[in-house]
Design brief:
By secondary structure, the chain is an alpha+beta fold. It is built from seven helices and 16 strands. Strands 7-16-12-8-11-10-9 form a seven-stranded mixed β-sheet. Strands 1, 4, 13, 14 and 15 form a five-stranded mixed β-sheet that branches. A hairpin with a 7-residue loop joins strand 5 and strand 6. The N and C termini lie far apart (about 55 Å).
Length: about 350
């Protein structure tokens, strides 16, 4: 009978289903699992965060200083009067602990295979992605500010904000010297007709642009709202690159992605690109500035690299697979509050969706 020799790579090690973890070698399996987690955390940072979420170790920042005065004309001996400036506010980010129980014991390692371990870790990956997506959506679809007690650090109360929501914050002037009344200005709006309209989507896009944008403006919708979006006057569709169209047909230069209907560019509306996104909720249209240097949301994590992303928590570091939990510590909130806006199309006043 031929023997398998040589060094197993990550995939082959974790595919072993005929030998126990103990017989293959706990250290070898632990190394393979760690490589998988590193790849998972990299994908989360680069793909899931995308153009929506920045990653930081900050928990509190100053926001909202606005130059609301005007320059005064004086002669060479004159001195303009002192003008009152806006009072800055603080924006905080939460930090929460999430766990995925496993209960790997020494006896478990004697019985189970590396493939069993890989299957349980894959379950942890799915759970991690699910809670990340849920918290990202809560950060901007929900419209109410709240106070978060930073109990994992020092129990300081942090003011966590949503998008601009008429909470009387001082809002910086726009790029063309637009001014905003913080007590009435909101980035949560609704259609007066309880249905998606071109006027409503146009106003939504303008709500983001008037605060200044540096990247393409993205309008994100769910697949359930695609038909309504395509029917709007002013929408220019992306088309399948394999189709031969009339020379008079107006279409986007970027073709329609035919392989991923839940995450694809479908056309343009006004100054924005329109995308169907898997995280989008039916009856809620989202517009945001995709500038990678000024993302609307931010994910807070620990300063220590060993506590960032999804981690395997061992009872003793000498035996990393004798563990009880997968853990992730993070929190997400609105950071650049004017870079995103939401339009509710199924009612005449904004209503927070139920996010579970």
């Amino acid at each position: 009978m031929a023997m398998n020799t040589g060094t197993h790579d990550v995939a082959s090690t974790l595919a072993i289903a005929t030998q126990s973890v103990a017989s293959v070698g706990v250290d070898r399996v632990a190394e393979a699992l760690a490589a998988q987690r590193a790849a998972h955390n990299r994908i989360v940072r680069e793909d899931l965060m995308g153009s929506l979420v920045d990653i930081t170790t900050d928990r509190l920042r100053v926001s909202g200083m606005a130059a609301q005065g005007t320059m005064m004309e004086v002669d060479e001996y004159g001195e303009g009067p002192t003008q009152r400036q806006g009072t800055p506010t603080t924006v905080g980010l939460p930090l929460k602990l999430y766990q995925w129980p496993i209960g790997w014991t020494a006896k478990w390692m004697e019985i189970k295979t590396p493939a069993d371990l890989a299957l349980q870790q894959a379950g942890a990956f799915e759970a991690h992605l699910s809670v990340l997506q849920r918290e990202i959506k809560k950060a901007f679809y929900l419209s109410g500010n709240y106070t978060f007690v930073d109990r994992l650090i020092d129990r300081v109360s942090l003011p966590v904000k949503r998008l601009y929501n008429a909470d009387s914050v001082v809002i910086p002037n726009g790029p063309n010297n637009q001014t905003f009344d913080g007590s009435t200005h909101t980035h949560y709006s609704a259609e007066s007709t309880s249905a998606m309209t071109a006027a409503g989507v146009t106003a939504l896009i303008a709500n983001v642009i008037e605060h200044g944008v540096r990247g393409p403006v993205i309008v994100a919708i769910s697949s359930g709202d695609e038909t309504a979006m395509r029917a709007l006057t002013g929408f220019t569709a992306a088309t399948d690159a394999e189709l031969i169209l009339s020379t008079t047909t107006v279409r986007t230069a970027t073709p329609l992605d035919m392989f991923d209907p839940n995450d694809r560019f479908i056309g343009k509306f006004g100054a924005a690109q329109v995308w169907v996104k898997p995280w989008a909720i039916d009856s809620y249209v989202v517009a945001y500035d995709s500038d990678p240097a000024n993302k609307p949301l931010s994910l807070r994590q620990r300063e220590q690299a060993t506590l960032q992303g999804l981690q395997l928590v061992a009872t003793t570091t000498a035996h990393p697979l004798t563990s009880e939990f997968f853990e992730a510590e993070f929190g997400i909130g609105a950071w650049n509050r004017g870079k995103m806006a939401v339009l509710y199309t199924a009612g005449t006043s904004y209503t927070d969706p139920t996010i579970t």
